[in-house]
Amino acid sequence: MTVPHRVVVLALAGLLPFELGIPHRIFGRAKDPAGRPLYEILTCGLAPGPVRTDADFTVQVEHGPELLATADTVVVPASYELGPAHEEGRLSAKLAAALAHIRPGTRLVAICTGGYVLAAAGYLDGRRATTHWASAEHFQRLFPAVRVDADVLYTDDGDVLTSAGVAAGIDLCLHIVRRDHGAAVANEVARLTVVPPHRDGGQSQFIERPVPQPQLASTTAARTWVLERLHEPLRLADMARQEAMSVRTFTRRFREECGVSPGEWIVMQRVDRARHLLETTGLSMDQVAHRTGFGTAQSLRKHVQAALGVSPTAYRRTFRAGGEPLTGPAPTTALTGDGNRAGPRPTLP
User: Fold this and answer.
1) 186: burial class by Cβ within 10 Å (0-12, 13-18, 19+)?
2) Which residues are paired to 42 by β-bridges?
């Protein structure tokens, strides 16, 4: 029987209970077709015992940092008490000793300000990363070697992933499930959690603007109209017409609401539709290209490769035949067929 992929969540003092619960909720709902868990989720602290939260209660953690040595994936949720990691960009001696237990090749995930821990440890040097938009400027000043993207909901650099604030941790964990086991599993987890399987745009849609826009018209009707016609040629003017706006006004409003341009959003939706067809049908590449609006197999390959880091053929082989899971654009460690990292895992202390 295959051993589930082990996710170890590092609970630090001052943690936010919501972010602590995200990995348990999302990974804990992922099951194989026989209903067996695909992940095992465990929590550790810098020492066993109570961990202070930012609320009026503590969390009792049974495991100490030695548990990190058994992890296939380590998740660091947000905390408001990161000490020198947040103030000086360095790890405390106790936190550095804890992180030293992590095996090389372990996948590392940070939710919101948990990214300060990974950055202070040097894991984000030279990599693209994100954090809560309100902390992004400070984060970049503190860690100039990190390429901070303050707009996206999450970043995926293969074996190191980061998310923006709070609910973006849900987006990131769903992305990881999708990457490991395909869209069908991730969509089922999203349904059980009553959240969208994928949110459009980036953090810009949540940043408070200097001038309130209470009369800002929605572009929802246009997006609904597009989703019903992804297989057809789509013109910006036709989208704007659904909202009775000029093209210029529609484009500005669309970017304000979704964080991306209409053209970028359409490509994202077409790639998602292609993923579904590649996973669930035996359609040829030309047929998939036609049904998703890419037109030709060559165009389909170009956009899927750019979005997923693999060709449509490789993606289909992975998720329809139980081959090696998709591991992102620049993986440094292989995953086994069920999302487990290759190589032996130390025993649970």
Assistant:
1) buried
2) 8
